[in-house]
Write a structure and sequence with these properties.
The protein is mainly α. Helix content is 65%, strand content 0%.
């Protein structure tokens, strides 16, 4: 009986770095980290490499790093809120007809609903992958997606009839 490799070496981690970095950067952007997504992904990968000994199953490396990235993006978002906004306009809508942009509606969702929407519908994660990245059960993720869809239907439903 063969036993699966339980740990990953630093060299193996380094070989996988480009793919891991690209995926974490994409995740960070979807979570609203913007241009800082690359810096946050770099920090997560450095921390992950440093803590490789804590990883119990090398098959879970990507999920482990995704979970670290989600937490790092939330910490980054909290720090960003505590700093005063500059006078630059952060978002200018392109459609001035009064119709609600779906991006704005998604941005208005509470974080517990917005994150699953970004992971599943924005990045194409399976529900199991998204739940693992968030550190919640698959049922909890399904509930959050259900609530998010219901909230989006309420918010966007009336506006679709305008056109």
């Amino acid at each position: 009986m063969e036993i699966a490799a339980v740990s990953i070496t630093s060299d193996e981690f380094d070989e996988r770095y480009p793919g891991l970095f690209a995926g974490l950067t994409r995740l960070g952007r979807a979570l609203g980290a913007g241009p800082e997504a690359e810096d946050i992904a770099q920090e997560v990968l450095l921390e992950g490499r440093r803590q490789l000994g804590r990883l119990r199953d090398c098959d879970k490396l990507q999920a482990w790093l995704r979970r670290m990235m989600v937490r790092a993006c939330y910490r980054h978002r909290g720090r960003r809120r505590s700093t005063p906004l500059n006078s630059a306009v952060a978002y200018v809508p392109l459609d001035l007809s009064g119709a609600l942009d779906v991006r704005i509606a998604v941005a208005r969702l509470p974080p517990r609903e917005r994150l699953p929407v970004a992971l599943v519908y924005g990045l194409g994660y399976s529900q199991a992958e998204a739940a693992d990245a968030m550190g919640i059960t698959r049922g909890g993720l399904a509930t959050a997606l259900f609530k998010a869809r219901a909230r989006l239907v309420r918010e966007l439903g009336d506006r679709r009839q305008v056109e």
